[in-house]
Structure formats: C-alpha cells, structure tokens
Amino acid sequence: MSNAVANGVAGAGGGIIAQIITYPLQTVNTRQQTERSAKKGLAKQPSNSSGSNNTLVQILHVIRTEGWGGLYSGLKPSLLGTAASQGIYYYFYQVFKNKAEAVAAARRDKGHGDGTVGMISWLVVAAIAGSLNVLLTNPIWVLVTRMQTHTQAERKILEERKEDLLREASESSLRNSTLQDKLAELDSLKPRPYGTLHAVREVFSEAGITGFWKGIIPTLIMVCNPSIQFMIYETSLKHLRAKRAANKWGSKRVTALEVFFLGALAKLGATVTTYPLLVVKSRLQAKQEIGGNITLRYSGTLDAIVKMIRHEGLPGFYKGMSTKIVQSVFAASVLFMVKEEIIKAYMLLEHKHRKLRLNFQK
C-alpha cells in the first residue's frame, strides 16, 4: 500500500469517527445558518424554532420535539460523504505533497533552497486536493444539508399556512370555530418522513442534475479553508518536530495530544476566516421554502450575498459561528489525532512485514 492510499484510508477513518461524535452540533449549526432573520426595522422578526440561539437549548429542543433521531438526520449520507471526502482529500493531498517534496529535494540538489516545502507550496497542494474533493463529493453534501434542515423547512411551510389562514379570517367572515379547527389541524401535522431517496428526487425535480452542485462556487472558494488549516498545521508540526529534534534529553516524538491541539489551532484559524462562505453555501443547498418570503430565496451565490446584506446585514453571515467553531475544531482535532495514530500503526505493521520478509528471504 502506498503512503497516499494509507493517508486516504486513515483520513476516512478519522473523519468518520469525528463525524459521529460531533454530528448533533453540525445539525444544529446548519439549522442556525439557514434560519432567516431580518434586520430590525425592515420586517417582523420570524420566530426561531427553539426560541433561542443558544446551542444547548436548541439541541434540547430538537430532542424534545423530534427525538434523538432529529439530531442525526442525514447521518448515513453524511458518513458516506465524510469517508469519501476525507479519503479523496488525503489521498490527493499526499500525492501532491510527495511531488512537492520531490521538487524541493531536486531544487536542493541543484543548490536552490534547503529542500523543505515552502508555505505557498503547502497552500497550492491543499487547494488542488480540496478542489478535486469538492467537485466529486458536492452532491452528497447537498443531500445532507437538505436532510438536516427538512424539519425546519416543513415547520416554516406550516407557519406560512397558518399566517394565510389568519389573513383570510381577518378579510372574510370565516367563523372563529372553523378557524380554530383548521389551525388545530395544522398543529397536528408532523413533518413527513424524509430519507435519502426522497431528497434525491426532490433536488432533481427542482433543478435537474445541476441541483446536486448547488453552492459549488462558495464551496470551491472555501477550498482555502483546508488550505489555511493545513498551512497552519504543517508549519506548526514542522516547527514542533524541529524543536523536539534539537532537544537532546526529552522525547523526540510528537504525541497524540499535541497533534490534537495543533489540529484545533489550525481549524480555528481556518473556520473564523471562511465562515461567511459556509453560511452562503448552506443557504443555497437548503430547501428554499425555508426562507418563507420570496425575497429571501436565492437564485445563485451573488444573489444570496446581496439579499443577505440587504435583509439581514453582516451578522447574517456569522449565524451559528460559535457552534461551528466548537464542532469543527473538535472534529478536526479528533480527525488529526486518529489519522496520525492510524498512520503510525500502518508504518509499524509495514516495518514488521518488511522485516519478516527479509528474514524469510535469508
């Protein structure tokens, strides 16, 4: 097995474990990102589904109204997407990393440089790997976003129907008892079952095959997120290893806990920098009825940005950021730690296998 394949498998394994642990936070964060709320003075503030922007309160609200399953809506395609994304990303990242290191070594042999890969090269390597990953896996994440926000969208539709009934009652002679019966009937309705195949059919019926690549522009721009993340991570790891190598008495190995904290630091810097693009991407991929008012529905990336600025202001681009920081930083830390441990185990097994083969040949 090549080191690129080993890194791909390790990345997929680490990503799956991190995703399972942090998925409830991701579900709540996606709902926070796609919740529309107008600037004061422009329109009546829509009611938040949980009545609070507090993450813990929203998690408890989902459990109370939808059960534990509500926090894990879309988990199956999400795990598939995570395995595919991390596997593809780390495979191509390692392939291009090997090429960058080979080029750096060749330049050193010719008397140019010290043989190490520079910061710009790390950014380019991460950007290429990220772009390939986005183009291949975007359809999966469109389905995951739909499934995570389905209940929220259904609730918005029911709220609109209630408002229509109240408006109709105020403009006509609709009896109060009839109105109450109709409102009670709407209250008794529950969100329809919504599986992966349902999401596939819905996306295709709305926009055809191109619907599975909704949000591709901000997602491609967001390739700079892992680029920034890996630039910080690789640079910090390189510095730590150099410091350890110069230490004559202490341990020269980088521990799993240190990798955990380096991964957290790298993801924190990347998330804060690129979060507005993540909100735009989620808005485009979610079911558009979630916005209620047609002026808050988006035809594309630029339309989404303009309408968000006009109706919600700059705070709209940072909805749920605290939740995302906790979720993504913790997930990245777990991913890096698990990935490095899997790679270590693979290298140990590879060394033992090579040693056994040499002994057998003797």
TrEMBL record:
The chain crosses the membrane at residues 117-136, 212-233, 254-278. It is found in: Membrane. This is Peroxisomal nicotinamide adenine dinucleotide carrier. InterPro entries: MCP_dom_sf, MCP_transmembrane, SLC25A32-like. The keyword Metal-binding does not apply. One of its GO terms (cellular component) is membrane. It comes from Ziziphus jujuba (Chinese jujube). It comes from the Eukaryota. GO terms for biological process: nucleotide transport; transmembrane transport. Keywords: Coiled coil, Membrane, Repeat, Transmembrane, Transmembrane helix, Transport. Its main location: membrane. It is a multi-pass membrane protein. Solcar repeats lie at residues 2-99, 117-239, 254-345. Residues 148-175 form a coiled coil. Belongs to the mitochondrial carrier (TC 2.A.29) family. The keyword Chaperone does not apply. Pfam families: Mito_carr.
